[in-house]
Write a structure and sequence with these properties.
This protein is mainly β. It has 2 helices and 5 strands; from the N terminus they run E-E-E-H-E-E-H. The chain has helices spanning 42-48, 98-101, and strands at 2-8, 17-23, 31-39, 63-72, 84-87. Strands 3-4-5 form a 3-stranded antiparallel sheet, with no helix packed on it. A two-stranded antiparallel sheet has the order 1-2. Strand 1 (2-8) and strand 2 form a beta hairpin. The structure holds zinc ion (ZN).
Length: 103
């Protein structure tokens, strides 16, 4: 497991606070980054406050991340350690559901 730190809310009424947690190991198709910057926009606030329903806690608001790659999985071919990488608001996919099968 990979030790990580973030600012999180623990509930819809909680203030942001420091939070330590563990991420899974880097998989064959993953890249690990050191986060340098990320956006925090109105959608993060709505999610943190559960204003759209369905929020899960603890939650680390923020998305559209830029960082420096610190590790790549064995099957990664388009990135190498040291590259800059940007991550959009959607990451990962199951490759099995209707939305995934429709691209
Ligand atoms: Zn899917």
């Amino acid at each position: 497991m990979i030790a990580a730190k973030a600012y999180a809310v623990q509930s819809a009424t909680d203030k942001l606070g420091e939070w330590s947690f563990e991420r899974r190991e880097v998989g064959p198709s993953d890249v690990q980054i050191e986060i340098l910057y990320c956006g925090v926009c109105h959608s993060d606030i709505h999610q943190a406050r559960n204003e759209w329903g369905g929020s899960k806690y603890p939650m680390v608001p923020g998305h559209e991340i830029v960082g420096r790659i610190t590790k790549v999985g064995a099957d990664v071919t388009k990135f190498k350690e040291g590259d800059l990488a940007g991550i959009g608001c959607l990451v990962d996919s199951c490759h099995e559901c209707v939305n995934c099968k429709n691209g």
